[in-house]
Amino acid sequence: MRKINAIITMLIIVLFLFHGIAGGFQLAGVINGGSKLMKTLAHIMEALIWLHVLIGIKLTADTVKAMKRAGVSYFKENKLFWLRRISGLAVMVFIMAHIFIFAHNGEGAYRLNEFGGFELMTQILLVVSIALHAVSNAKPALISFGIKSFKEAGLDLALILAGILIFTGIAFIIYYFRWAAV
């Protein structure tokens, strides 16, 4: 199950990179409107994220059961485990806000709700929670693919992800100011 989850994670990352770049350019006003391809890929990513969540819930439940059987939880020693779970929960909360803010109607026309300070804050927190979740889960993800050199692969992945996250964060800020000017 962990190997399947790792494959799903990599697919989510690839789709997220595309979504972050295309969506960032759209928010910044460089490209107009969303395409059917972008919408379809976003829905595929959403489905993969839900699958990832379900697998994460199952693995977490198994771990909690094992802790209860052992009679000890070693909370201090398992801080990274709980950071991964809590950051994943935060990502889900902010993804739901993202979906709510950037909604489409049935006619294919792009419709936005107001994008004020609260909406900007939720989207910046989405970027931060994704960064925290990705950083805390990078090592086990690389291990699941048999990558032993964390420094090279991890640094490359971290730089790419950091660049996309910074870009999307800036795009949200630009979009906020574009909305404020309306």
Give structural notes.
- There is one protein chain.
- By secondary structure, this protein is mostly helical.
- The chain is 79% helix and 0% strand.
- The longest helix is centred in the N-terminal third of the chain and has 35 residues, at 36-70.
- The protein is globular and about 60 Å long.
- The N and C termini lie far apart (49 Å).
Task: Record keyword descriptors for this entry.
single chain, 182 residues, mainly alpha, globular
Sequence-ordered SSE layout with sheet pairings:
Elements: H1 2-27, H2 36-70, H3 79-101, H4 117-144, H5 150-181
Overview in brief:
With 182 residues, the protein is an all-alpha fold.
